[in-house]
Design a protein that fits this description.
The chain is α/β, with parallel strands linked by helices and about 170 residues long. It has 7 helices and 6 strands. It has a 4-stranded parallel β-sheet with strand order 3-4-5-6. Helix 2 runs parallel beside helix 4 and helix 4 runs parallel beside helix 5. The two termini are about 25 Å apart. The relative contact order is 0.10.
């Protein structure tokens, strides 16, 4: 996750500045910058450690995901950095799934066709309909920490996690 090292305030959590970036639309250029920087860094690490299969996860905001240039931007960044598509995993959140379902599914399939990996983050906190899971071309389903943190002490949380894992 992106962090902001402010010269006077120190480290600023993304929970403080990402909502402002979303509201103002700055999340789009910020998101492209993050994608490019992450891919450049991963390409450097792959050259430095060629014996290890490394993957970088990058969060996409809802605005970024539904931006008309999403596919072109991802292709451009991969081409510029030389990063193989399978070394990039894009993370989306459940809130994205309640938007335009056909556009969302088309975008996911296009990204998957490129060879990019896809992850659904914070599963269980939003829409959480299990009916759409088998339609989505996902590589990873990340169960929200609110369930995971309690799974050892709360039998119900553990049962929910076990059910999600079985269905996924």
């Amino acid at each position: 996750l992106l962090r902001w090292q402010h010269p006077k305030q120190g480290m600023i959590s993304p929970t403080k500045f990402i909502p402002v970036a979303e509201e103002t639309g700055l999340i789009i250029p910020l998101g492209w910058w993050v994608l490019r920087a992450a891919c450049q860094q991963m390409q450097q690490w792959q050259q430095q450690f060629p014996q290890r299969p490394l993957v970088v996860n990058v969060n996409l905001s809802i605005r970024q995901f539904f931006h008309p240039d999403l596919l072109a931007q991802v292709c451009q960044v991969l081409a510029e950095t030389g990063l193989p598509p399978q070394s990039l995993k894009l993370e989306i959140t459940e809130s994205l799934l309640v938007r335009d379902h056909s556009t969302m599914l088309t975008r996911l399939l296009q990204l998957k066709t490129l060879g990019v990996q896809l992850s659904l983050d914070d599963f269980g906190t939003g829409y959480s309909s299990l009916s759409y899971l088998h339609h989505l071309p996902l590589n990873t389903l990340k169960i929200d920490r609110s369930f995971v943190q309690q799974m050892l002490s709360d039998k119900q949380c553990r049962a929910v996690i076990e059910s999600i894992v079985t269905m996924a």
